[in-house]
Amino acid sequence: MNFEEKQTALSEIAKKIELCRNCKLCEQRTKTVPGSGSPDAEVFFIGEGPGKSEDLQGLPFVGAAGKFLDQMLESINWSRENIFIGNVVKCRPPGNRDPEPDEVEKCWDFLQRQIEIIAPKLIVTLGRHSMNRFLPGLKISTAHGQPKRRKDGQVFLPLYHPAAALYSPSSREIHLRDFAKIPVILKKIG
Ligand code: URA
């Protein structure tokens, strides 16, 4: 698919998400958050689900965790234009609770389709919920910052969720160190 075809296909998914009533998260949402960024991104970042600011704006990672994500991108001389960011679920779980298994299940096809269209070289999972959806059984405390190639060839890099740095500022160094591996891994993948 060329750039325009990818863009069109992603917009069609975003329209479907906007109309989606497959699970109860649709009842309390303000806006759906389909994800945003470059259709040609080499790296697809995947968080857990929209928070309050994201629900209001319809965009991923625009709150406090998003600001730290922007700082980490800046630390490797990247910006949001270089990447695509989405979430496992596209509507805010009330009170920022974890998404429930049926909610993740009902939303899963949207994410799979987005991955197929963008065809990223690397998927960066943000937080243990996103990681475990793709790489079940891993522990974030040992898996963070370690690239993993799945049997189907897709490469993943599990990272701690950027919100963790807000609660534990001393962990910022770990986040930044893990993040710095992204360009190195991309180069290796070729
Ligand atoms: N946390 C997430 O996991 N996703 C967002 O979009 C915002 C905060």
Strand content: 5-15%
Give the end-to-end Cα distance, rounded to a whole number of Å.
20 Å
* Tally of helical segments: 9
Q: How many domains make up the 3D coordinates?
A: 1
Using only C-alpha atoms, the radius of gyration works out to 16 Å
CATH topology: Uracil-DNA Glycosylase, subunit E
Strand tally, please? 6
Instruction: Name the CATH homologous superfamily.
Output: Uracil-DNA glycosylase-like domain
Q: What's the shape?
A: globular
CATH class: Alpha Beta
Main β-sheet, in a few words? 6 strands, mixed
The secondary-structure class comes to alpha/beta
Bound molecules: uracil
Low-confidence stretches: none
Percent helix, as a range, is 40-55%
Order of helices and strands: HEEHHEHEHHEEHHH
Name of the CATH architecture: 3-Layer(aba) Sandwich
* Average pLDDT level: 97
Architecture overview:
Strand 5 (148-149) and strand 6 form a beta hairpin. With 190 residues, the protein is α/β, with parallel strands linked by helices. It has a six-stranded mixed β-sheet, with helices on both faces. The mean pLDDT is 97. The relative contact order is 0.16. Helix 1 (3-19) runs antiparallel to helix 4 (101-118). The radius of gyration is 16 Å and the shape is globular. It contains nine helices and six strands, in the order H-E-E-H-H-E-H-E-H-H-E-E-H-H-H. The chain has helices spanning 3-19, 52-57, 64-75, 101-118, 128-134, 140-143, 164-167, 172-179, 181-189, and strands at 36-37, 43-47, 84-87, 122-126, 148-149, 155-159. The protein has a single domain (3-189), classed as Uracil-DNA Glycosylase, subunit E (3-Layer(aba) Sandwich), CATH 3.40.470. The protein binds uracil (URA). The site of uracil (URA) has 11 residues, from loops.
